[in-house]
Inverse folding.
């Protein structure tokens, strides 16, 4: 696999096979998965080779039939060079001479087999990768009711192939890089040449080149380092495990970053509008989709505001409440020992704890925990007058509405507590002041040079086909290419 | 980022935590009744107390006496046991004697008072004291003061009565020197419940008499 080579302590190899064997065995001393297999040709005694591979990372059958047997059966006359070994003896489809020790090691550590022949210092690298990978399935947190159900896996080339199968154009570009001085993780920038703005690609490359962590085990390592406004709870970089989503975003002019070893793919630029889009918005009828999307937007706003408004009304503005509602709420709060604010904060925290516990606990136990937690809180705590029924309703409503927009979970949680603090201090004035601050914060965000509120505020951009509701496909100008270069088609 | 941090101390300076109050300390008043005699003024307030979400709300009556309107309300606030929460009061009943003395001091006090809604309905007790009318039971079983407010509102919708909230009464009073207004009159019926009883006629802010029925818009 191409990419930046591994830094290596080996400057060069020797023409003496035994010395090369000693060198590599010393380098991988203590590693019991490192296998050395010496092989000689039966018919040509001058052909002596050493085959190196890592047990568990290779296809043994390929080595046996395409490497070892051809070497053993070789009856060529001349001394065998690395080229002859690579192009005539080896029967593996991807076979090359690799004189650079660093590049050789990089491929070797990823599942390729290395062959040295006596008399030539250059190793031959053959592709025999055979490590097991999880089969592709629908991602758990990106389910659709209708549409493709394929998801990325931890296999790097498999993921790239899933994207290429959907965008069969020579303008689809894959640019590899290696990041992390210890893990040497390969990442790939994917973009559609002619659709994506070159400045975006350059910006991606610049940010990746400034990445300094020594390890990359997941895409989030990169996401937190390269995204804009890293302290903002609102996401400025997209995350997905679905190849159809990546293909759609590439068509919109975004750049995708595929990371080896993780099914999560990053996409950018990423704007707030995309947080309210669901995957099957494009696979279902536009009437339903429009309604659902507006519901998500309204749900998010209500989710972050309702606890704050509840506390503000009950603490500062009781006169706004209808008289009967005030009596009912006052009656429900009879005997509750905590002030309204503390009660609300406590219950919000408990909701988050239950959500986290349900996520961490496996299988049926997690479901049981959620039910027990809900029953205990909803019934017993209210009966015992620890909390009042109205606040349980408010917090439950806020929590459930927050689940409509899973991409904004963190932002919703932070905004909710922030607005609650504003409402508790300044009443409704504080709530609206807080909302203004949130809006100001969103207005100041950008993602790789694209305003975060693009398409949601009319003055920023007129591309409203896919903003609040989705225009039917027969009315869509071009598949939502709101960030792409204008006037150019792939 | 640093500029936005400056907002935090600014927020603290503007903090209105001092105005915060829990519902548990409130004693919401649903209706009030004012009587006047030689001894002075008497105020009866109907507060609502509900011990639980399942229980039924019950009215409780507290009285206060004083020589002037502000002292009367201050005495009622002292007696009520919690925070005197007047803003949800639906109806203010005035008996005949107090109405003949003039309603302007009361109306002006309620307008000045932050905790009184301008839409509170005014009515005159006829043939009974304001306290008796306030305590009359409501056929729907709800709080009498709230039932009375609804009765006055429905009466105007049907055209059988007049609904005179405070702001409308005061606007009429202050619109000119020779002003005639009317307030709904309420009495205690034969079954012991509060019933409409025509109109109370006012010249300026003083009661001059009653009229039975008739088209209020004529």
């Amino acid at each position: 696999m191409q990419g930046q080579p591994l830094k290596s302590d080996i400057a060069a190899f020797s023409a003496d096979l035994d010395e090369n064997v000693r060198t590599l065995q010393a380098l991988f001393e203590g590693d019991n998965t490192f296998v050395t297999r010496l092989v000689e040709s039966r018919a040509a005694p001058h052909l002596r080779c050493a085959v190196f591979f890592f047990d568990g990372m290779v296809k043994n059958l390929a080595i046996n039939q395409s490497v070892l047997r051809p070497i053993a059966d070789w009856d060529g006359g001349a001394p065998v060079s690395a080229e002859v070994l690579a192009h005539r003896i080896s029967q593996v489809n991807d076979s090359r001479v690799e004189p650079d020790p660093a590049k050789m090691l990089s491929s070797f550590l990823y599942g390729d087999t290395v062959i040295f022949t006596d008399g030539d210092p250059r190793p031959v690298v053959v592709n025999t990768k055979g490590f097991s990978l999880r089969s592709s399935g629908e991602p758990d947190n990106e389910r659709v009711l209708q549409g493709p159900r394929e998801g990325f896996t931890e296999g790097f080339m498999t993921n790239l192939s899933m994207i290429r199968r959907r965008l069969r154009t020579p303008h689809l570009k894959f640019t590899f890089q290696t990041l992390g001085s210890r893990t040497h993780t390969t990442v790939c920038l994917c973009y559609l040449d002619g659709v994506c703005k070159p400045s975006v690609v350059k910006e991606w490359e610049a940010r990746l080149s400034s990445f300094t962590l020594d390890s990359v085990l997941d895409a989030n390592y990169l996401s937190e380092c390269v995204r804009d406004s890293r302290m903002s709870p609102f996401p400025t970089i997209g995350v997905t495990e679905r190849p159809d989503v990546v293909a759609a975003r590439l068509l919109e002019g975004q750049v995708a970053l595929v990371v080896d070893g993780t099914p999560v793919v990053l996409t950018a630029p990423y704007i707030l509008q995309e947080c309210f889009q669901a995957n099957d918005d494009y696979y279902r009828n536009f009437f339903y989709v429009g309604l659902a999307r507006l519901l998500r937007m309204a749900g998010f706003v209500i989710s972050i505001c309702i606890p704050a408004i509840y506390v503000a009304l009950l603490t500062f503005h009781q006169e706004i409440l209808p008289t009967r509602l005030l009596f009912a709420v006052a009656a429900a709060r009879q005997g509750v020992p905590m002030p309204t604010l503390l009660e609300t904060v406590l219950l919000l925290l408990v909701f988050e704890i239950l959500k986290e516990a349900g996520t961490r606990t496996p299988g049926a136990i997690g479901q049981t925990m959620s039910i027990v937690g809900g029953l205990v809180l909803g019934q017993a705590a209210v009966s015992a007058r620890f909390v009042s029924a109205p606040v349980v309703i408010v917090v439950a409503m806020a929590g459930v509405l927050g689940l409509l927009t899973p991409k904004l979970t963190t932002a919703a949680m932070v905004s909710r507590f922030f607005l609650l603090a504003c409402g508790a201090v300044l009443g409704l004035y504080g709530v609206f002041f807080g909302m203004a601050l949130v809006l100001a914060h969103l207005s100041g965000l950008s993602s790789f040079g694209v305003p975060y509120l693009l398409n949601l505020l009319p003055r920023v951009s007129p591309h409203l086909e896919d903003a609040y509701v989705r225009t039917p496909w027969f009315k869509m100008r071009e598949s939502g290419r709101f960030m792409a270069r204008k006037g150019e088609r792939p | 980022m640093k500029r936005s941090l400056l907002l935090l101390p600014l927020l603290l300076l503007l903090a209105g935590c001092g105005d915060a109050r829990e519902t548990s300390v409130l004693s919401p008043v649903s209706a009030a009744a004012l009587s006047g005699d030689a001894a002075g003024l008497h105020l009866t307030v109907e507060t609502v107390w509900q011990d639980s979400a399942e229980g039924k709300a019950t009215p409780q009556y507290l009285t206060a006496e004083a020589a002037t309107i502000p002292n009367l309300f201050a005495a009622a606030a002292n007696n009520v046991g919690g925070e005197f929460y007047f803003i949800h009061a639906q109806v203010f009943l005035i008996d005949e004697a107090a109405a003949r003395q003039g309603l302007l001091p009361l109306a002006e006090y309620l307008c000045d008072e932050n905790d009184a809604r301008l839409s509170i309905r005014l009515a005159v007790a006829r043939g009974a004291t304001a306290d008796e009318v306030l305590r009359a039971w409501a056929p729907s079983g709800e709080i009498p003061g709230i039932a009375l407010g609804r009765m006055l509102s429905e009466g105007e919708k049907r055209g059988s009565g007049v609904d005179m909230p405070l702001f409308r009464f005061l606007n009429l009073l202050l619109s000119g020197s020779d002003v005639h207004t009317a307030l709904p009159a309420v009495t205690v019926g034969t079954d012991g419940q509060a019933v409409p009883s025509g109109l109370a006629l006012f010249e300026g802010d003083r009661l001059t008499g009653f009229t039975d029925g008739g088209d209020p818009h004529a």
In short: The first strand of chain A starts at residue 34 and ends at 40. Residues 323 and 329 of chain A are 10 Å apart (CA to CA). Confidence is low (pLDDT under 50) at residues 1-5 of chain A.
